Amino acid sequence: MSEVRLYLDGELVDVDPKTVISETKQINDFFEFQNRQASYTKNFTIPLTSQSSKILSRIGDTYNTSNKPYRNLKADLYRGGTATILSGTFNIKSVIERKEVRGNIQDGIVSLFSEMGNKSIASLNFSGVTHKFETSTVLSSFTNEWQQGYIYAFSDFGLFDETDVDLRYQVPSLFMRWIFDQIFIDSGFTYSYRGNDNPFESADFKTKIISLNKGFVFKDLPDNPIRKLELDGLDTITQQGRLYMRLIEVYDPDQYHSVSASPNENQSLIIPTANDYFEITVDGNLVGDAKIVIELDDNVLYTINEGLGFSESIFVYLTINSKIKIYSESNSATGYSYDFTFKMFKDSGNDVINFNSYLTNLKQKDFFKGILQMYGLIVQREKGTNNYEFIKIEELFLNRSDAQDLSKKQHKLKSEKFKYNNYGQVNDLRYKYDDSGANFADGSFFIDDETIRKSATILTVPFKAPKLSGTSFNNEFVFETPLFEVQRNDNGTVKEVKPKNSTAYVMNVGLKNGSFDFNTGGATTPYTGSIAIANFDGLNFNVLLANHYSSFIRTISRAKIVEVEMELTANDVYQFDFLKLIYLRNEQRYYYCNKIENFRENKVTRMNLLEVNSSRQTTGEYSDDYNNDYNI
C-alpha cells in the first residue's frame, strides 16, 4: 500500500499507516434533479500527535479554544506521489478520548457551495450597477446588454397604463448571466464550458432576466441627508475566524444602536425606529488579511476588503424590523486591525436603486441550481484549479468520440438495475406562481414503466412564472409581475401605492422599435425608439424539456444501471473525467458514470454506471443520486 499523506491548510498531519481512507467520487447522479452532491471520503481518524495537535490548535487539550471544528480546512490527500484530492475540505466531526480526531473530506462542487453558503443574491457586489432613478437612465437602459447588469424591461408591475406609462412604477430587472458571473467573481472562482454548444454565450441566456422581489415608492424627502447614527470601530485581532463587533457610540439620538445580550454578548445591533431609505457610509482603515462585513437580517449586505483609507457608501431601504450587525473575519493567523467610522443618514436620495436592498429571499445556491436545471447542465471542478467546468448533458450523451475506454480496467460486471425510485410515469417540472394551483408554465415528461408510481414532482425552480395580462402595449401583451400594491379611491383614482413582497419572476427581454407616452408623476412626454418589453418566450418547461432534456429522458425511459467492479489506481481516480462517457468493450456499450464508490488502493472499486441510449435525437437534462450522501 502506498504511503498516505494528508495536508490540512498546507501542513502535513500524521496519519496512522493502518488507516484506510476510502473515497467516493461523484458530480451529478440521476436520481433527483434538485440536489447537487460532493465527492467525499468515509469518516477516518487522525491521531493527535504533537504535530497534528499543533496544526489543529490543540483541539484535544483540556479547556481548548480551537476554532478548527467551525472552519473549512483545506485538505490535500496524496497516495504515494499521486494526489487524489486537491483543495478539498476536511470537516471535523468529533474528538475521541482526546487522542484522535474523527472527520471526513468533501471535494468538488462543495468548495463553490461553501463560498455561497447561505448568502442571498442581495449580498453580491452591486457597486457597478447601483444607479439613480432618472428618466434618461430608464430609457437608455432599453438597449443594455447583460454586461450592464440591469435593464428596465416593461411589464405590468401593478400599476401600468399603456396610454401614459408612469416610469416610477417600472422596476429594473437583473440579467441572469450577470448574476451568474458575479457569483463566481465574489466567490473567487472561474468557470468555463466544455464543448461546442455553450449556453452561457447564447443569445438566449444573455437575454434572460429576473425581476426584483418588490417595488419601491418615491416620497418627498428633505434636500439634505439627516444624520441618524454614528459609531466607531477600533480593534486589533490576533485570532482567526469571524468576530461580531461592539462599536462605540458617537451619535445616536433615536437609539438605533444597542448591545445584544446573552448568548451573543458584546455585539452591536442596529435597528432603525422607522421605515425609510438610508445611506450607510463606512470610512477608515483595515490592515491585514481580513474583511469587514455588514450583515442585514443575517444576510451579507456589503463586504469591505480594502486596506488604508477605504470609503464605502451603501443605499438601502430599512424597516423597523431590520437588524444590522457588523463582523470582521480572517482565515489568517497573522492578525489584523481596523479603525473606521460607521454612519447612517436618512437619505434624501431615495431615488437611488441599490440592488442590495432586494432579492434577500433568493439564495445564491438556489439561483445556481435553477440555472443548471433549466439548461440541463452538469459541473465538475477542474483538477488543481479554482475553475469549474460545465457541459450540457445532451452534448455529453451524444459525444462518443471523446469517451474514456476503461475496458482494460474492467474486472467484473456485478449487477444490473432497472428502476429509479424517485421518478414516476408522469414527471413534473414546475415554477412558482402568484395564483394557487396555477401550472400554465410547467412541463412533464413520461416514462413507460407500469411498475413505478403514477406521478412525481421532480423539481420546482426558485422563480415565478408571470401571467399574461390583457393589456396590449406597442402591439404586444405585457405580463403581470405585481411588485406594487395599489389602493384606489371609490372613483378609481389611485389613493396609495406600496411595495409588495414577492418571489423574483423569470423572463426574457424582447427589443422592438415603437413609441409611447410616459410621465414621472407630472407632465406627459412622448418617446420613440427602442423599447425593452419583458416576455416569457421559450421558458415554458415543455419547451425547456424539448431543448435540453431529450437524450436524458430517452435514456431513463429504458433505464439500466450497472454496477461494475474496476481495477483502478490512485492516478485513475484523480484523472477521471466525469464530463466524458465511458466505453466498455466487453459490454459494447457507452455509459455515464454516476459514482466511483469507496476507492481504496489495491482493492477492486465499484462504479455505478448509467447506460446511455444510443439512438440519436434532440436533447437532455440531469438528475442526481441513489441516496442522500452529502447532498449540498
Biggest sheet layout: 14 strands, mixed
Rg for CA atoms: 27 Å
Contiguous low-pLDDT stretches (5 residues minimum) are 29-36, 616-632
Mean pLDDT: 87
Strand tally is 43
End-to-end gap? 32 Å
Helical proportion, percent range: 10-25%
Number of helices: 10
The 3D shape can be described as flat
Describe it for me?
This protein is mainly beta and 632 residues long. It is 12% helix and 41% strand. The chain is built from ten helices and 43 strands. The strands form ten sheets. Strands 1, 2, 3, 4, 5, 6, 7, 8, 29, 30, 40, 41, 42 and 43 form a 14-stranded mixed β-sheet that branches. Strands 10, 11, 12, 14, 38 and 39 form a six-stranded mixed β-sheet that branches. The longest helix is centred in the first third of the chain and has 12 residues. The chain is flat.
Features:
6-stranded mixed β-sheet; 10 helices; mainly beta; 632 residues
Summarize the structure.
The chain is mainly beta.
Secondary structure elements and pairings:
Elements lengths: L3 E5 L2 E3 L9 E3 L13 E3 L2 E4 L2 H6 L17 E7 L2 E15 L3 E8 L2 H7 L14 E2 L2 H6 L9 E2 L13 E2 L6 E3 H12 L2 E4 L9 H4 L1 E3 L15 E12 L3 E4 L3 E4 L5 E3 L8 E3 L5 E12 L3 E6 L2 E6 L5 E9 L5 E7 L5 E11 L5 E2 L10 H12 L1 E5 L5 E6 H6 L5 E2 L4 E8 L8 E7 L10 E4 L8 E10 L2 E7 L2 E5 L3 E5 L5 E6 L6 E14 L5 E11 L5 H8 L1 H8 L3 E6 L3 H6 L6 E3 L4 E11 L5 E7 L21
Parallel strand pairs: 11-38, 13-28, 29-41, 31-33
Antiparallel strand pairs: 1-2, 1-6, 3-4, 3-42, 4-8, 5-8, 6-7, 7-8, 9-26, 10-12, 12-14, 14-38, 15-17, 15-25, 16-24, 18-19, 20-23, 20-25, 21-22, 21-24, 27-28, 30-40, 31-32, 34-35, 36-37, 38-39, 40-43, 41-42, 42-43
